[in-house]
Fold Glycine--tRNA ligase beta subunit.
Amino acid sequence: MPELLLELFSEEIPARLQRRAAEDLKKSVTDALVEKGLVYESAGAFATPRRLALTVTGLPAASPDTREERKGPKVGAPQQALDGFLRAAGLSSIDQATVQSDEKKGDFYVAVIEKKGAPAIEILRDILPATVKSFPWGKPMRWGTGRLEWVRPLRAITATFGPEGEEPDVIEFELGTVTSGNTTYGHRFMAPDAIKVRRFDDYVQALEKARVVLDIDRRKQIIRTDAEQLAFAQGLDLIVDEGLLEEVAGLVEWPVVMMGSFDEAFLKVPEEAIIATIRANQKCFCLRDASTGKLANKFILTSNLIAEDDGKTIVAGNERVIRARLSDAKFFYETDLETPLLDNLPKLEDVVFHAKLGTQAARVARIEKLAAEIAPLVGADVEDAKRAAKLSKADLPTGMVGEFPELQGLMGRYYALAQGEKPEVATAIEEHYKPLGPSDRVPTEPVSIAVALADKLDILTGFWSIDEKPTGSKDPYALRRAALGVIRLIVDNRLRLALGRFVSDVDLLSFFHDRLKVSLRDSGTRHDLVDAVISSDSDDILQIVSRVNALGSLLAAEDGKALLAGYKRAANILTAEEKKDGRAYADPIDAARLSTPEEQSLAAAIARARTDVIARLENDDYAGAISVLASLRTPVDAFFESVLVNDPDPAIRANRLNLLASLRDTMHLVADFGKVAG
């Protein structure tokens, strides 16, 4: 079957956009193909710095013929309705429609619309230029006098279509001044000449000969493997950085890996600063000594060409730039060390955190106060927590953090230790930002926990107080991340912390509930179980999680499943009868009217269970309360097997409904089982 080959050849596409752009190209084209009736076997998308490429295999030569019956108005309908039907169906006269009958609706018109399939190449001639014109680049650009927009100037288009073993046809179309053809180009420097291609297989081979590796994942693997081998030969380990690897693979079409070095004197600078400097400025990888684990004074660079001098000039150029950048980092570090962190605090009075929430200095004061309140609740020393909170933002005015904002907190720890602060205080300065995401480490030291919670709670309560809340997908202040951070700090450290003490806004507490549901759902927990145990005033995150887990264990067992079924049956009966009677059933059970052994047994079991559940909940033994409910399974089953709830005697009926209400209310002490699915 025929195959499509499409390549959009341009000036350099930003590395961060390439992978997404390749997937967008595949989705746009394949969606349009399917919409036109062209079902395909497989599709693959690829990207290099100068091209997006797409192959679609197993396409039919033409779209299928179609036949559609379109229902119209009733016979005898007004002329206006008939005219609208004719226009929609593409008919010139009502005589071209057929009449069908319906027993209920009578006679009505039906238009039979038959369309002949179109050659696939004609369909592609429409789809491909439309895809390019509507491509979802965030910030496209125009060039020259044309009106075509693309992320960078588009230089050539390769578009061929045809079956294997035959010469494919060029899908002819124009975009601005560029006309499609069967010509592409190799590496900008090592093989810049035009290359004629036919279909995907020979296209890939031709590019390889022209020093272009089409697949970004293969380029990543080449870089990683060659870098690890170079490092191994020197007794070093590569510091793997997946983000940097992705970026570098998007900067080169023919990766050539080399090793450079820098002066050992720079190793006196904190290694994180060295790594950040080399990564940010030269897109190079750092290395560790395999035997000691310490940072080595060598780095890995990736060139986009095979140099005639074996890369000596390229390596020397990178070494020269890195030497200059590390000199700056060393200067920043040594200068920062000369200024005590406390002396930086007045500078925070000139830094606005938010127009409505004041300066960073005001924020630090709030965090310090909060940390002092939280410290005793998490086992932290109050004075240490206050000291760490006071210094938590003191590294923001430093030269190193000004140059590399991602080092905030970390540099504060280095400076604090060098200036004689307690280790736990220094650690808290670094860790109070954590966790920054779902894969980030959660602090476990008490002082760090206290300051991290204070930092996040201040952000959340502050922005809620000025009505700046996340809306839809927009969350410019990362408030969802802050709430999830609070949740992870509490859950991972098994903290019994009542958020209501710090969160007075009901909407904010509800926001925590929503984030907790997201967190538990992501870990595989059923959302309905969260809804069942949570109430509008639930403020103990760990308690909620424990209850969800205990409820999940109950409902996973046969007793729990049967008990839930009994609850649902009781609740449904009560709902129906209360609606019919216009009253609620919540009166005490009349023991004298319990006429059967089964209802007597259930009443006694409910009474025992209620007393036991209340006692266990007062002792925070939720799992025990759950196990008590499980004991109700047998008497509930026996009751529904032998007892008719709607007894002819109104008094007995009412007493039995009160019995079911007692069962429902006792179970509601533990969870709202009405919100549990199943």
Remarks:
- The mean pLDDT is 93.
- The chain is about 50% helix and 15% strand.
- Residues 312-337 form the longest helix (26 residues).
